[in-house]
Amino acid sequence: MAAPDYDLFDEQGNRKYLTTEERRRYFFAIDRALVKSDDREKRTFALLLYYTGCRISEGLAVTYNNIDFGAGGVIFRTLKRRKAVHRFVPLPPTYLAKLDDVHKVKDFQGGRDKTKAREEIWDFARTTGWRTIGAVMAAAGIEGVQATPKGLRHSFVIQHQELGTPEHMIQRWAGWASRDMMEVYGRAVGQEETAIAQRLWQH
Question: Which segments constitute the Tyr recombinase domain (predicted)?
Fold first, then answer.
C-alpha cells in the first residue's frame, strides 16, 4: 500500500513533479548545462533519468551488461524491495546509439574480460549525480521542490498517464510492487489535470 501521507505536494502546497513544459525545458537544457568535454557521461546520465524515470541510485547501478540492445532498453535492479527484483524499461534507439558512442558499451559487452561488462557505466558518486541533475534544472529555469531527480521521476509517471499508457506498464517501468501508487499520481493537477478536463470540453 502507498503511504497514507505520501503526496505529490509538500506541506506548503508546492508540487513535487515537473509539468510537461518543464520536462521539455529540462530535455533541451541538457546540452546547454553540461558543455565541458568531460561532461559527455553526465549528459547521458541526465538523459537516462529523463527517459526511464529511474531512481538516481538505480541509474548509477546500471552496468554495461544491463544495456540490452536486442530488446532496446535497460535493465534496472529495483530498489526498495525485500528481494532482488529486476525490471526492463525501453529506451529510444537514438539514445542507445549515444550510449554506445560515449561509453563503448558494445565493446565492453563483447570483450574478453567479462568482469569489465559487469562494471557500472557511470562511475561517479551519487552527489555528482544530484549536482548534474541540479545543473540541468537550473539551466532550464526550473526552481522549487520539483527541481530534483525525484521530480523528474514523478513527471515520467504523470506524463505516461496523460498519454494513456496502460497502468500495468507504468507500474512495471516505475518498479512498484503494487498498483496503489497509481492512485497517488492521479492527484496531479494544473496543466495535466486541465488536459484531461479538455476531453470533456471538446464534446
Answer: 13-198
